[in-house]
Amino acid sequence: MKIFENIINHKINTITTDELLKYAKQFHIKITRQQAHDIANYLHGSNINIFDHSGRKTVIKEIAKIAGPETAKELNKLFVQFTK
């Protein structure tokens, strides 16, 4: 399972604005291009581990500052799905 965790974390840590917009659309998460850009910039190279609860919580708090609490809540649901 560790390999899947590494793949998912790598994808999150290297996600682009366009990829984030594509996933948001696919999972029905409302996000603007500017929010996606800001979130992607935050995630890029941050070495985030969404499988670590406290790390994911920190990321969600930062995303809430960037895109608002509702978007952060929806992204957290998506992250939780990835970790199952």
From TrEMBL:
Pfam families: DUF2624 (PF11116). This is tRNA methyltransferase. It comes from Bacillus methanolicus PB1.
